[in-house]
Amino acid sequence: MRTQVVIIGGGPSGLLLAQLLMKSGIESVVLERKTKDYVLARIRAGILEQGMIGLLREAGVSDRMEAEGYVHDGTLIAAENATFRIDFKKHTGTTVMVYGQTEVTRDLYEAREKAGGKIVYEVEGVTIHDAKTDAPYVTYTVGGQDQRIDCDYIAGCDGFHGVSRKTIPDGVRREFEKVYPFGWLGILSETPPVDDELIYASSPEGFALCSMRNANLSRYYVQCPLTDKPEDWSDAAFWEALKRRIPEEAADKLITGPSIEKSIAPLRSFVTEPMQWGRLFLCGDAAHIVPPTGAKGLNTAASDIHYLYHALRDHYLDGSDEGIDQYSAKALARVWKAERFSWWMTSLLHHFPDQSDFDLRMQQADIAFLRDNEAAQKAMAENYVGLPY
Ligand code: APR
Ligand code: PHB
What we know:
The structure is a single chain. This protein has helices at residues 12-23, 36-40, 50-58, 63-68, 88-92, 101-114, 164-167, 235-245, 248-253, 297-318, 322-349, 357-372, 374-385, and strands spanning 5-8, 28-31, 47-48, 70-72, 74-79, 82-87, 96-98, 118-120, 124-129, 137-142, 145-150, 153-156, 174-189, 199-202, 208-214, 217-224, 259-273, 276-277, 280-282, 288-289. The model has no long low-confidence stretch (mean pLDDT 97). 39% of the residues lie in helices and 28% in strands. It has two domains: 5-72 and 95-177 and 268-346, FAD/NAD(P)-binding domain (3-Layer(bba) Sandwich), CATH 3.50.50.60; 180-266 and 353-385, D-Amino Acid Oxidase, subunit A, domain 2 (D-Amino Acid Oxidase, Chain A, domain 2, 2-Layer Sandwich). It is α+β, with helices and mostly antiparallel strands. The site of adenosine-5-diphosphoribose (APR) has 28 residues, from helix 1 and helix 10.
């Protein structure tokens, strides 16, 4: 088989790239190791920056998001039983969209299938060959049959545990990592959200986040020790911990209910340099991971896809390879800013087990400065709604 671009990974990064390329008449094949149902069963975050919204519109996959998503003009920060608001609209003139990543992925799958785009599911043993030549190819097995796809370019959209990043030789690849000493225990409940906007809460007991998916589907998180397992937490224990960590006014009006999903995610910051090796390009979680505090995971994958899509489009349609040559440098420049913001929000709002009394006072002073200073709030708002591509 031959195609122009092989895309390894059928998550949001791979599917968005495939859809954008198709819109420009560029052929691709998506290789996904799981089934579609497995991919769609993943519960992920739900905040879209304007850049991602624009890409979904450009890909022709924005109708349901526009109809069902929630536009948020700001967010609430709570500490020491007091709440203040970061006004995105006032400070940046723009907003974010609350629309589950699972729904984004569902919409992308639907568009790919409707357009007859090729997705090969349940592939095994994907291996990248000759990425440093002008004739790369990918081999894999599906249904017990060995397959080979010759191509011009390979997009590694296969997430943190994929094969693409590791194809870049150890002597070439540099990895930067920070593992946080806690995780997030998250639940979904078919209950009305506690507020119209998200509440990021810092408390002596730990961080909590009140989010949502729709008018009757809420997403809540509490910081928990890395040693905890979801089964260690009854629903009652979760709700009591959440109530202790959010302001009394919110706790008093919180509507609880049975969890329909309960999971614990570890928090890490991770970046790979470079994000390309010959004709292999890393995108999204294959190249970088952020703690979910700043909602930058999908939105940083989006800017990678924007840069790679335009680079490939310029190559095929205009014969220009400047974007291809500059992809890694351009993508990393924005990745590191998203990493910084995600690290900053995580450091600001979480309780660190080894925190000294001085560290705690610094954290409290940081939150107080954010509460009282317009410039600090503008800086946070600009990062939260998304820095320019
Ligand atoms: N071969 C084929 N497919 C693979 C392989 C492989 N060797 N390894 C992984 N995959 C698939 C996974 O099954 C998954 O569906 O690649 C896909 C990667 O998708 P994601 O992990 O969702 O990564 P990405 O598409 O970059 O999306 C980034 O997802 O994890 C969140 O916080 C993250 O919001 C961010 C977004
Ligand atoms: C979510 O809704 O899952 C969510 C929202 C904001 C975040 C992280 C997760 O920062």
